[in-house]
Amino acid sequence: MSDSIFDKLTINPAxxxxxxxxxxxxxxxxxxxxxxxxxxxxxxxxxxxxxxxxREGLRLLEESGLVSRVGxxxxxxxxxxFRELATRASRALSMHQVTFQELWDASMITEPAxxxxxxxxxxxxxxxxxxxxxxxxxxxxQETEQFVKLDIEFHDIIARAxxxxxxxxxxxxxxxxxxxxxxxxxxTIKTYERVIEAHRKICQALSARDKVVAQEWMTRHMAxxxxxxxxxxxxxxxxxxxxSEGLVAPR
Amino acid sequence: MSDSIFDKLTINPAxxxxxxxxxxxxxxxxxxxxxxxxxxxxxxxxxxxxxxxxREGLRLLEESGLVSRVGxxxxxxxxxxFRELATRASRALSMHQVTFQELWDASMITEPAxxxxxxxxxxxxxxxxxxxxxxxxxxxxQETEQFVKLDIEFHDIIARAxxxxxxxxxxxxxxxxxxxxxxxxxxTIKTYERVIEAHRKICQALSARDKVVAQEWMTRHMAxxxxxxxxxxxxxxxxxxxxSEGLVAPR
DNA sequence: ACCAATTTGTCCGTATGTATG
DNA sequence: TCATACATACGGACAAATTGG
Lengths: 251, 251
Fold this sequence. Notes:
Chain A is mostly helical. In chain A, 65% of the residues lie in helices and 3% in strands. Chain A is built from 10 helices and 2 strands, in the order H-H-H-E-E-H-H-H-H-H-H-H. In chain A, helix 2 (40-47) crosses helix 3 (51-64), helix 6 packs antiparallel against helix 7 and helix 6 (124-139) packs antiparallel against helix 9. The radius of gyration of chain A is 23 Å and the shape is elongated. At the A-B interface, helix 1, helix 3, helix 4, helix 5 and helix 8 of A face helix 1, helix 3, helix 4, helix 5 and helix 8 of B. The structure holds a DNA duplex (21 and 21 nucleotides).
């Protein structure tokens, strides 16, 4: 181990320096959320680099969610929303071969805790949204696809009502992964009544601001979910199938 | 609202199509983790677009963590690691003005649950790492910076030992945000002995595979943390200060 | 409704430093 | 050591879309 005088300095490519510089301007508040970015040529002039370089830097920021398009022409500074982070995190999880058991184990901890907090903070609007969601479930018969989405939405509303951003960020990627899991289970269920009934009970408890009952029913609901999964014969310790986003490069 | 025959079709810029196409090749397994990407000129030729376009597409993938540099010249397909996702998520949280209370509230749920699982699965190597971590803490005196990092590392090791990737992904961004919080607290503490003692007890419980005690001590440890924060006089419902990454664009 | 200026998307070519055989 | 391949960055160009008058 030779004592060296100089730290090893990391040479960043110009496009990364550009991206970092713009990011700095954002986090330091010189560029605020909603502001439109200057034109590429303008940025290039200010930084003294070529426009292509600026473009590559902008792509980094674009993907990171810090800036995003409004219309087709203008880039705007945006608050990265949990959703966008979630898709990446969700993809990472599925690439890491996460199992149903891991997913369920974590949800079994968070979802009831979230329900408990939601009972304290839920607004009337959110209660209405829940009731509407339940009504939609009752109306949608045995259409699996739609039902799973409504189920996920139901839990999302509750997470929002918990008034805790950290919980929301934590559970978002998980919620996306429940989509394939849900689609595995539901076709094997004769009637969705049991699911809907649990949602009704949860909604009722939230209405009454009863955090104990809300938490209990959420726990029961989640336990049910695992039973349903096991009943399909799937191995909970095998990696989940990917979210199968139906997007193919167009053109 | 006129009924229209055609769906509104989203025109993607070529660079996004390129990125999506490469991503498809990765998730569908034609490109595996560790594979090196073809040269930019080669990709350009195959897709029939210009090299500059390919470059912009590569920047998107680079930021998303799907590909990353090895050496300065070659891009390699990589498994996005939780760390990289975490920095973005962490930044998002601080931009969303998350409060200490939210952070702590969520951690109070997850950390004890993680400790409980770690008690069942921890390996001898990980136990050694914990002991080494504690030894380093004892040695580091009152150097706040170093102490906070060791503290975060301690919890990271336990998260790894939980053998649950979902928990790890969930808590990673939170762990980053605890850095500023920790730096707020520690200077006001006379001795770190109480923290170290808690870590010792947790480590001991994990050694004995005692999940109840591990969970209890983790809970106590977290509660202590909040008390420490309150004792500084800081308002737990005010947004945390940003992680203050000391990076300024060089050059 | 039309024109002019601006801006983005894409492309071509080239120079330079570096890694690999 | 030399040759080749490659990534980085720059200069310039043009069509299409958008915006503002």
